[in-house]
Amino acid sequence: MNYVTLLASLGFAQEVCDAHLGKIQVPQFTLTAPYKPQFGFPPMMIPLWSDGAWPGYIGVITRWFGGDEAGFVKYYAEEQALSEIALTFDQLKAWLAFDFLCNVPDPDEVGNFAASIGLCAKERVEDYFAHCQEHSDLSALPAFAIGLPKFLLNGEEDSQPGWVRDSVRKPDIETMIAHGQYQQAWHGINSPGLERDEIAALLRLIAPFANDARFDDLATCWTQSNQ
Q1: Residues 66-98 pLDDT 10s
Q2: Distance of CA 187 to the CA centre of its chain
Q3: pLDDT tens-digit profile of 120-159?
Q4: What DSSP character marks residue 83?
Q5: Cα 188 from Cα 209, distance rounded (Å)
Q6: Per-residue DSSP letters for 8-59?
């Protein structure tokens, strides 16, 4: 079992799998794919790219225990902080291309990325973002008409997904599981404050209640990536 097989079994589009496999051409010295599993990340997220500068990941959120969590996030490993940057892959394409346009000095590399990820032709990137000066301006693009991620709604400083819990402790999550509060416990497992060994133990504790054999696959992939 590996993450790309799990992504496909969970119904994610081939383009998401391609991102995870490193088939999308990103500018040099930016993101890395296949990702490097050395920084640590919450099990709900499947990394698509890693970045040693933060350090951390851009990844996709998976859904378990009857929740409606979704979207794409930046994860800052040192702070254990999540930032919701897109609700759909089309939004992620635009968010990343604009971020590269603002920060990568070689416009050809940005164009190659935009074409590789299926956003637009490489020579049309600046036209695509003609009316965007800041990330907040992305909200006017068609891809964001369905709704805005927290990054665009509130700004980067207040962009964590709504399901994230503050100040979680392992005994509290164990109590939630014992009381059948599996969704709340799952949110706690994926929130800041826990060590790797604590998360691993909680995954073993909550797994029997997932009612989905793929959750065991998720736990296996996460454990293998967080030694």
Answers
A1: 999 999 999 999 999 999 999 999 999 999 999
A2: 15
A3: 999 999 999 999 999 999 999 999 999 999 999 999 999 9
A4: E
A5: 15
A6: HHTT--HHHHHHHHT-S-PPTTS-BSSPPTTS---TTEEEEEEETTTTEEEE
* Among candidate residues 49, 54, 57, the one with its CA nearest the CA of residue 23: 49
Is residue 12 pLDDT above 90, yes or no? yes
Rounded (5°) CA angle 125-107-142: 20
**With the C-alpha atoms ordered 32, 38, 39, 42, is the resulting torsion angle positive or negative?**
positive
CB-count exposure of residue 94 (10 Å: 0-12, 13-18, 19+): buried
Return the pLDDT at 168. Answer: 87
- Going from the C-alpha of 7 to that of each of 37, 62, 165, the distances in angstroms are 17, 9, 25
Give the Cα separation of 70 and 178 in Å (integer): 26
